[in-house]
Amino acid sequence: CHAYFAALLLLPVLIESVLSISFFLPVNTRKCLREEIHKDVLVTGEYEISEQANTKTNLKITDSSAHTLYSKEDASKGKFAFTTEDYDMFEVCFESKSPMGTGRVPDQLVNLDMKHGVEAKNYEEIAKVEKLKPLEVELRRLEDLSESIVNDFAYMKKREEEMRDTNESTNTRVLYFSIFSMCCLIGLATWQVFYLRRFFKAKKLIE
């Protein structure tokens, strides 16, 4: 029983995505992080950028259609949150700008923590608003996790069906192309036989 409960507690870590990363951003450069996220998923993030004199760092989050989901000029420290409208590839970009030349200003340290799905929800706040007991909060969390698992399996099933349909369509096209190629080869071979027969007869090599 204890092992089963421990497995349940580990499921959010295994299934939900938590991105925590730190990197150095050279002056007058742009670095982007990309991540695929499902539809109707809450995404939250927290960032902190080390301050540097005469340096301005901009943060911009966009989807594959270049729609801006979050934008902050001269960013230093803050939080962001948005809900995805469709399954898409999202891009988080940090861009450093400075009138000073490259190499004359030290790199900035960027810390970024991103969460989505169950991990992004603030269950403590939900418990306060809805006056839930600890056990009810955990049940709500497990309910959301179960829904997330079901949605993931539904998406994987849909992708599997799309890939199967693509494979079947490709196999059908390959079969038709193979039959067409064989017919062309047979027709070419038959024409060649009749052509050589007429040629040899014209040369009176055969009767």
Rg to the nearest angstrom? 31 Å
Helix content: 40-55%
Q: Return the CATH architecture of the domain at 16-121.
A: Sandwich
Number of helices: 3
Transmembrane segments: 174-196
InterPro entries: Emp24-like (IPR015720), GOLD_dom (IPR009038)
Main location: endoplasmic reticulum
Domain GOLD: 30-181
Note down, in words, how this protein is organized.
It is a single chain. By secondary structure, the protein is α+β, with helices and mostly antiparallel strands. The protein has a domain of 106 residues: Jelly Rolls. Helices cover 44% and strands 30% of the residues. It has 3 helices and 8 strands. The strands form 2 sheets. A 4-stranded antiparallel beta sheet has the order 1-8-3-6, with no helix packed on it. Helix 2 crosses helix 3. The radius of gyration is 31 Å and the shape is elongated. The N terminus is likely disordered. Its main location: endoplasmic reticulum. It is found in: Endoplasmic reticulum membrane; Membrane. Keywords: Endoplasmic reticulum, Membrane, Signal, Transmembrane, Transmembrane helix.
Brief summary of the model shown:
The chain is 44% helix and 30% strand. It has 207 residues and is an alpha+beta fold. A four-stranded antiparallel sheet has the order 1-8-3-6, with no helix packed on it.
